[in-house]
Amino acid sequence: MRGGLWSAAALACVMPAVVQAQEQVAGRWIVTVDYFGTPTVWTLTLKQDGATITGDLTGDVLTGTVKGNEIRFLAKDTVGGSEDVTARLVKGRITGEMLLVDGSEPTRTPHRLAFTAERPPEPASRPPMRHEFVPTRFYRQFSPSNPPALHVNPGDTIHTSTIDAAGIDAEGVRRAAPGNPQTGPFYIDGAMPGDTLVVRIRRLRLNRDTAISTNGMTERGQDARTAVRMAGTGKPVTWRLDRDKGIAMPEAPGDALKGYWVPVRPMLGGIGVAVDARPPAPGSGDVGRFGGNMDFNEMGEGTTVYLPVAVPGALLYFGDAHAAQGDGETTGDALETSMDVEVEVDLVRGKSAGQVRIETPAHLVAIGMEGSLDASFRAASSSMFGWLSADYGLAPADIAQIYGTAAEYRVSALPGRAAGMVLKIPKARLATLPGAKKP
Amino acid sequence: MRGGLWSAAALACVMPAVVQAQEQVAGRWIVTVDYFGTPTVWTLTLKQDGATITGDLTGDVLTGTVKGNEIRFLAKDTVGGSEDVTARLVKGRITGEMLLVDGSEPTRTPHRLAFTAERPPEPASRPPMRHEFVPTRFYRQFSPSNPPALHVNPGDTIHTSTIDAAGIDAEGVRRAAPGNPQTGPFYIDGAMPGDTLVVRIRRLRLNRDTAISTNGMTERGQDARTAVRMAGTGKPVTWRLDRDKGIAMPEAPGDALKGYWVPVRPMLGGIGVAVDARPPAPGSGDVGRFGGNMDFNEMGEGTTVYLPVAVPGALLYFGDAHAAQGDGETTGDALETSMDVEVEVDLVRGKSAGQVRIETPAHLVAIGMEGSLDASFRAASSSMFGWLSADYGLAPADIAQIYGTAAEYRVSALPGRAAGMVLKIPKARLATLPGAKKP
């Protein structure tokens, strides 16, 4: 494997071979390595030609042999790392050891690591179905280590609920510690690293009559004058949600704000997939290529989110629903509430943009989630370049003209580590192009 | 006068008094000072009680006497500066000298400066009228020194035209050097520093069939990957404007962009008033409290711009019209073209926000024009705080809740010195409030 702590080896130990009926080694495997106490998921793809096997182990090119149920191969990366593997296949499960040399370690000390490998769960052969899922546990990391809450097929629909950012459910009962606890993770059978998970938000409805917010301004939004003005604010505010009228009002407004109301516009603040096990798992307030706490107020009904799959099954999480939110979530807490959620999941196999893409009914949306609005502006612009180039066959100079005439830049979220900004391109403009994707 | 090169004095020379019929000294005067070769406009307000006069000279508090047509007073600021003035009033015009001590100069050397003062032109007593104005000169500074192109009353309408950013008019003829040459300046009779100029954009129509743009990306929008992609772009592109259909198309698109079109959405890139004479006048590509090259794509028909008046007559300039522009003017040049323009001007006397405010049919808009999107985000947020506080009686905690539920943040312009960002608050939300302004 290339890079980091995760490069590769030469195995010494030869395991005793027990004679068994020959099993098929070719195909895809999910490898679980015990990496110094951290169970870590890799992928293994094998091709067999007689006794010869080729393929890759998490991207490292391998060659080896298979003899009965005994497997031996050497995988190499491009920076001097390698994995020398000896294993056996018994009853559809590979068990073995690898001698791993990490090409990035100065000493290149070989490490002996145990692993197992299993076939990835393939989607059941059946028509798409709708799952009624009642969550009982909630998670605060986009972690690959949490047990799947439910296995679903690509094409299936999940009907479930989320609790609010503070951990309170529709009945007002605390169900988790505060900090955007997420529903899930949902294991999408057949999803493998390199695929794209498609999440279509079909339904997002209020399921209680209150939301919680604060009356302050996110620190990133305060200039010196605002900071002085805002001293002593940042206190909790309860909002009343009128589900019949579809509006929200502060429960106890002062005289000046009496009568203020906004239409509700339900959205998911958080939606993401598990990161792979190499870095420590990000918390439910974080954002990145895995999605996460994006707090973009157009993440509502009718929006589709494309997420790069990093681990087998993708492990989809969502939560932190808001009844309404201005651009930027300037109050730090939007109108935080629990929600009735229905999403349809799908899979684009073997293709990944490596970053989050969003599609609303009217727009393609690229999101920048960097440390400043300026950096996120550049990141969103760059991300959309890749999208328009790949899907519409446009050259940079063409794309520049589309931006110059049709770009819409909005602030998504500001309270967290990232100062999010999105670039929206109207689909109506792209529909005029020869390379336009047909719906 | 407080601060800068512009503080104040004690006059020695006593001028010979010629006996004349006594004229009225009370009221407002426009003072033109010859400041080391730069003609500089100050304001003078006088109250008379017998032989005693009080008032202020450009903010410095004065006391003095009037005897026949002879005027003497001493004006003082709060940092040790002063103006000691001796002058005479003859036929409605004051001529005199001042000994100015600049409180910020270490030596406080007194400077002897000549000045004249005249009554500000008051609006003619007549119903509002519509002026047909054909521009013959164009200006590339928001300068107080350019001669007024036309005197208008508050309430009047000006129908005129602008040439494009490159200096080309509706007939394709060069009329000025490139760099956003502006039509104007229009002198609004009665406008004085401390007032607010109201500019209602009534009509903004294409008057030719082409626009010029470029196919690059503003430097501020390029991350490293984009910079590599964009190498060799930034070339001119001609756009065809179909005035009947109201659409714009690149004249010679490549295969991938064939058929691309956008609806035209005419806007004024530049709209501003003259700065006072103290700083050097900003160029027509600059922005600030005077307005300027804001390049905000909602500055179209139906939009009202509020500008703080800095000099007598305000001196309104506008130009740099775009047929269409995406958020941020990412190409550096939007669809630059000439335009048929009609604006109605009005005046709010004695009241100024000290910064630009914008009102569209649906939104109040505050604009930040600082050096980064992050700073402009804060500036726009801070500016809107002032607006909602003053006009709607809202406390910071109230305003925070409005932002949190209804703020819309958009990028305005990026190519210049400023990375502009606007904060839009829907009027529909404010209409719910007890303190709402009635239309």
Automatic annotation (TrEMBL), chains A, B:
| InterPro entries documented for this protein | FmdA_AmdA (IPR004304)
Organism lineage: Bacteria, Pseudomonadati, Pseudomonadota, Alphaproteobacteria, Sphingomonadales
Q: Name one Pfam family in it.
A: FmdA_AmdA
User: What name has this protein been given in UniProt?
Assistant: Acetamidase/formamidase
According to the UniProt entry, where is the signal peptide? 1-21
Molecular-function annotations in GO? hydrolase activity, acting on carbon-nitrogen (but not peptide) bonds, in linear amides
Organism whose genome encodes this protein = Sphingomonas kyeonggiensis
> Which keywords annotate this record?
Signal
SUPFAM superfamilies in the record, alphabetically?
Acetamidase/Formamidase-like (SSF141130)
Q: According to the lineage, what is the superkingdom?
A: Bacteria
